[in-house]
Every structure is written in structure tokens, then in C-alpha cells.
Amino acid sequence: DMKNQLRITVKDGKPITAVNEAVLRLKLIQIACGAVYGPERVINHIDCAPRISVLREVLEQCNEKIIVFAPLTSVIHLLNRELKEFTRRIVNGEIPHKERSEIFRAFQQDATPRVLIADPGTMAHGLTLTAATTIVWYAPTDKTELYLQANKRIHRPGQAHTTTVVHLSATPVEREIFRRLAANESLQGLILQLARGNL
After folding, report:
1. Alpha-carbon torsion (58, 60, 61, 63), positive or negative
2. How confident is the model at residue 19 (pLDDT cuts 50, 70, 90)?
3. Which residue(s) pair with 37 in the sheet?
4. To 10 degrees, the CA torsion angle through 59, 64, 163, 74?
5. 64 to 86, 112, 113, 122, 125: CA distances (angstroms)
6. What is the pTM of this model?
7. What's 13-49 look like in SS3?
8. Phi, psi for 92 (deg, rounded to 5)
9. Cα–chain-centroid distance for residue 58?
10. Residues 6+ apart with CB under 8 A from 114
11. In what helix (H) or strand (E) does residue 170 lie, and over which residues does it extend?
12. Which of 73, 77, 150, 188 is deepest in the core (most CB within 10 A)?
């Protein structure tokens, strides 16, 4: 529906401003995650069982610790509920700094938790989490610097294992966002490209 509306907008000659594009890009990310914010911040859930199933497969196949980045608080809570079979902790802006520090210490030094489900914004700078060998992006962020810095949490001095970054995606738009993030390219123009049918 969103793609069709965008095509009509472009066909009618209406401009897509940078602000509108950022809002639309965030809405696409919400749809991919399975939690769309509606009026008055009400969360509308969309069936995301296939994406969660793939995430479970990745978690089951990795022998070391894993960080799962999700760009929305509602999705972090959703994943925490869905992944009960794994020892896990969540880290986002709701978690007090002192508790976060203890979670990071336990993740780095203790056997549990095995999985850290986190908002990349709370972990983008200054942390060494080399106990993890894999980062899974449940959905893309729309901030390039955040993406690049968050991936460095496991690529640090003291990392003794090969590291992997996994991008979960179901659409060409998500894959293009991930491609641009990894290449440190601007996300500007992505929505226009989608509206023109180039994605």
C-alpha cells in the first residue's frame, strides 16, 4: 500500500521532502520489524513469525554469544518475549546506566546471558563486547554512523574469533538500506527510488 501511494505521489508531481522521506523510511522499518506506531504512539503488531523463525535459526546455529540489534523499543520487548528459550537480557534507554553496566559485565565475563537484545543507540560507542562473535540486525537502522559504530562492539582488540554480521531482510528496500549503511552511503533518495519502482 505504501509503495502504491508513493507512486501516485510521484506521478502527481508532489514533492517528497527530506523530512517526509525520513518519516516514510522509519515507517518502512517499523513494518519490517512487525510493530508499527499509529496515532498516539499505539503499537499495531504485524505478523513477523517468519523473521523471528529465521532469527531463531541464526541463534541456534551460533555457538558463541550473540548481540541482536533492533531499532525500536517495542521490537526489543517483542523479541524478549519470543526468544524465551535463550538466556537473554535487553538493553535500551529504559534500562538504568548502573544496570546496563552489570548486564555488559555479565555478558562479557559470565556464561549467561548468551543473547543481548539491544537498541543500537545505547551500545554504539565505547563498549567492548568481544564475548560475542555475531551481531544480528533484526531490521536496519536509518542512521549510518550508528550502524557502523554498533558493529564495532565485537570488532575490538581482544577478539579471538572470527566475527559475523547478519542482516535479516525480506524486501529489496531493506537490502538496499543495509547495502548503503555498510558502504557508508547516504540513505537520502531511497524512498524516491522506491516510488519510481527502482527497488
Report:
1. positive
2. very low
3. 43
4. 40
5. 12, 11, 11, 22, 22
6. 0.84
7. CCCCCHHHHHHHHHHHHHHHHCEEECHHHCEEECCCH
8. -155, -175
9. 15
10. 65, 66, 86, 87, 88
11. none
12. 150
